[in-house]
Design brief:
2,3-Dihydroxybiphenyl 1,2-Dioxygenase, domain 1; 9 strands; homodimer; alpha+beta; 9-stranded mixed beta sheet; methylmalonyl-CoA epimerase activity (chains A, B); 21% helix; MMCE/EMCE_epimerase (chains A, B); 3 helices; 135 residues
């Protein structure tokens, strides 16, 4: 098992259009369109950097996993980082052996990019929420 | 002004060797040596990914800027993200015009990589601490 690229950094934001405008206008970034992801309870905007992406996350629906984060962090904040792996089952099993917990039922779900993903428990990873995506 | 590459994601950790071992052993990452940066009050370990770096941050000295963060987040957490820019003075001035505050006295300092850096106020950037580094 070998960790791959940093696929994206996700930032939860309290105002999606304001955040997109700021990246577009003040930083001159290449900002994509807003995309609703009802299966994940988020609306996302991707910012394309030369080497990776920033994912702006905004709640979609009352059950959005971002609601609680924004209640605790009303100004927003860095929500998670996503590493690419070649084989998500092998990665999961090696991480579980090392003592890291996988969130949810432990099985990969199909993520916002249509690829299998898992999330690791932040308490087992230096307080950082880590997503692994099979590419 | 055009934002460049994501230079690194910095993660503050409560146990530097344990965090390095986890990235090395459980994720199979390419982990560098610990480097003391007394001018910045941190000891850092860089993890080289194919497209960017993870910077593990640990306090060095009683005045370390990481001490307060770890008091609030004892398990650690994602501390900041660093974007590359070509001209840090032009970037700073454009950001100030847009209403974003620069931390400290507003002048670039020489960062951990020997390049000029500034930090932007998290409240002006979706709760995310953003470092700009001139490359």
């Amino acid at each position: 098992m070998m960790i791959g690229r940093l696929n994206h950094v996700a930032i939860a934001v309290p105002d999606l259009e304001a955040a997109a405008d700021q990246y577009r206008n003040a930083l001159g970034a290449n900002v994509g369109p807003a995309q609703d992801e009802p299966d994940h309870g988020v609306t996302v905007i991707f910012i394309e950097l030369p080497n990776t992406k920033i994912e702006l996350l905004y709640p979609l629906g009352d059950d959005s996993p971002i609601n609680g984060f924004l209640e605790k962090n009303p100004a927003g904040g860095i929500h998670h980082i996503c590493y690419e792996v070649e084989d998500i089952i092998a990665a999961r099993d090696r991480l579980k052996e090392s003592g890291a917990r996988v969130l949810g039922n432990g099985e990969p779900k199909i993520g916002a990019h249509g690829k299998p993903v898992i999330f690791l428990h932040p308490k087992d990873f230096n307080g950082a929420l880590v997503e692994l995506e099979q590419v």
